[in-house]
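User: Could you go from structure to sequence for me? I need the amino acid at each position, not a summary. Structure tokens:
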């Protein structure tokens, strides 16, 4: 099965996230080499991520966010219970816990 190319929205989001990672790196006064080393990835991989390449592994992306001190914010941003909809719908859609 061949994969289809990413949508414009995904390409734009990748570019925006890449720019934001560069900004975090600069705000922290870190070089690209330092972030790549702390994340355990190649400098070229970090450069691709910072330039919006969406083909970087999730593990690589998360390692960079950890190196920049932003990992927990990424985790929280994807937590459905951090949204009004997630909290409201959880009672209707998820199984009830058994209380003893």
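Assistant: Here is the amino acid at each position, in order:
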């Amino acid at each position: 099965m061949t994969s289809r190319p990413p949508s414009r929205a995904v390409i734009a989001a990748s570019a925006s996230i890449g720019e934001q990672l560069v900004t975090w790196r600069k705000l922290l006064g870190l070089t690209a080499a330092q972030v790549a080393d702390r994340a355990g990835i190649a400098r070229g991989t970090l450069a691709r991520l910072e330039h919006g390449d969406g083909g970087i592994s999730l593990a690589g992306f998360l390692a960079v966010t950890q190196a920049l001190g932003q990992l927990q914010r990424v985790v929280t941003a994807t937590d459905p219970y951090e949204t009004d909809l997630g909290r409201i719908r959880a009672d209707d859609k998820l199984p009830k816990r058994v209380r003893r």
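One structural detail worth keeping in mind: The helical segments are 8-27, 32-39, 43-50, 58-67, 71-77, 84-93.
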